[in-house]
Amino acid sequence: MKAGALEVGEGSKTAIPRGGVNRGISILDFILRIVAIIGTLGSAIAMGTTDERLPFFTQFVQFRAEYNDLPTFTFFVIANSIVSGYLVLSLPLSIVHIVRSGGKASRKVLIFFDTVMLALLTAGASAASAIVYLAHKGNAQANWFAICQQFNSFCERTSGSLIGSFVGIVVFILLVLLSAVALSRC
Questions:
Q1: What is the pLDDT of residues 55-93, one digit of tens each?
Q2: Exposed, middle or buried: residue 164 (CB in 10 Å: 0-12, 13-18, 19+)?
Q3: How many other C-beta atoms can be found within 10 angstroms of the C-beta atom of residue 119?
């Protein structure tokens, strides 16, 4: 056998240690949690402060559109607020994973609650997007008229708040996948 050849089953000595990969995954987990906080908290604030008033005949008779007129939008704000609170509370555990890359039990807890929060956020965003669609398009068969021609600012803010929530959904999917990869490497 030649002096420079590797035998079958012999690996390189310069492989990246598992702790380094798990630390990188944990840092990415922390950054994604911050991105999700920004998206969900921004969505809750944008939807929660949405209101518009239109005068009708006189200044004393007005039509108004507020988020709390529709229970679906209220559920959206509550769901995004709960998810934002959870993300803030999960940041210290994410920091612990950066410092100490082990911890199977805490990763299992995070993956469970991340999945629950993903379901809650998806439910809130899906319900709100159905109402926003009706506000934009209406439904002639149900005799629901599109209100976005009159309440333009209201519709823009509600549509914009959905973007942050759907960004949060994508980030949560990535968080669950990252946690599963990190758990398999422990």
A1: 665 666 566 667 777 889 999 999 999 999 999 999 999
A2: buried
A3: 12
Name the DSSP letter for residue 68: G
pLDDT, one tens digit per residue, over 146-181 is: 777 777 777 888 889 999 999 999 999 999 999 888
Distance, in Å, from the CA atom of 75 to the CA atom of 182, rounded to the nearest integer, reads 33
Q: What is the largest CA-CA distance in the chain?
A: 98
Q: Is the pLDDT of residue 50 over 70?
A: yes
Label residues 41-60 b or e (16+ Cβ within 10 Å = b): bbbbbbbbebebeeeeeeee
Q: Is the dihedral of CA 105, 110, 113, 115 positive or negative?
A: negative
- Using an 8 Å Cβ cutoff, are 183 and 157 in contact? no
